[in-house]
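Posted in: Structural Biology > Protein-Ligand Complexes

Title: Requesting predicted complex, pyridoxal-5'-phosphate in pocket

I'd be grateful if someone could produce the 3D structure tokens for the following input. Sequence and ligand are given below.
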Amino acid sequence: MIKLMTPGPTQVRENVRLARSFETSSPDFDLEFYDYYKEVCQLIGTLLHTKNPVYIMGGEGILGLEAACASLTEPGDKVLVIDNGVYGKGFGDFVTMYGGIPTYYTADYKTALDVERLANFLEKNHNFKYATLVHCDTPSGVLNDISKICPLLHQYNILTVVDSVSAMFGEPVYVDDSNIDIICGGSQKVISAPPGLTLLAVSEAALSIMQNRRTPIASYYANILNFRDYYKNKWFPYTMPISDIYGLKAALDNIADDSDIYKRHSQIGTAVRYAVELSGLQLNLENGYSNTVTVIRVPDIINCQDILSTLKESYHILLAGSFDSLKDKVIRIGHMGENCNVEDVALTLEALSETLTSLGYPLKTNLKLFF
Ligand SMILES: *Cc1c(COP(=O)(O)O)cnc(C)c1O
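-- Reply #1 --
Done. Output follows.
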């Protein structure tokens, strides 16, 4: 068995796997399933501190991002794309695809977004229907302060679309207090269920803008509005992946029962970063560290793939490289959700220390120092 220590998909606990094997009914015709689905959505809303309706869609995390853009964008709409990472920039593609006109607000990829600078920009430029931003941009691990950025955008009546796929439940999220109109999550990151589901909390303001469009939403599968009256009409736009949702419920119950979850993410994230710095390795970021993932620069004299394959073959631990401009330059440890426990993180750090030594890069201190 290979131990997953990647920033998603993460390890899946046995009770989640078992829930996915429960006997299934028809999610279309079994009226009780509508209550079950609603209950799971309400649990998500409670955990995200929102009264907004929540929807679970059958499709990987990316579907949520596309659904938000597809459902809001009409041809010619101006959209602010906040870009301080790979996913941040990527939102612009969805905006363009549905006929919107993106304005990229591009900032340093090594630091959390500077809210003051954004405020200055918005003073002069605020004619946008909505803005997109990423909570934790996973390829670099940068964490943006959505609790400050979204209320700022809200002041200018700009709707906010937040990708929190790799942060929610590892970093606290207060949807209503932060004025987040659409927040997107995925089953396979902190939630620690297998990939396959996207979840969205959508404000009434966003729903009413979708409802009052001049042009129809240019997608069926990615149309959020199709979910709006599912409960009243006892109708889903497509057959819901019932076993995935059973698994999701078990994973969310694990989170709801885990009163230390945010504290543990913070303590483990902090300890890993501290150990990396003392060891002589370098963190990729200058500030804005997400407690869900640590991104470490690969020393010039060794090869990224060699580190990853040694860890996999000799220690049966899977870490991730990265992509885009960070390809082959960094390795990533995903200490989120089920991965976020002292035993697995200690094992990973020990194995990484030994691997680097065997590849000719001995560390000043063993990474396991604080574990
Ligand atoms: C994982 C992730 C997604 C979902 O994307 P996949 O590449 O399909 O897994 C979306 N946004 C962020 C920030 C993610 O980390």
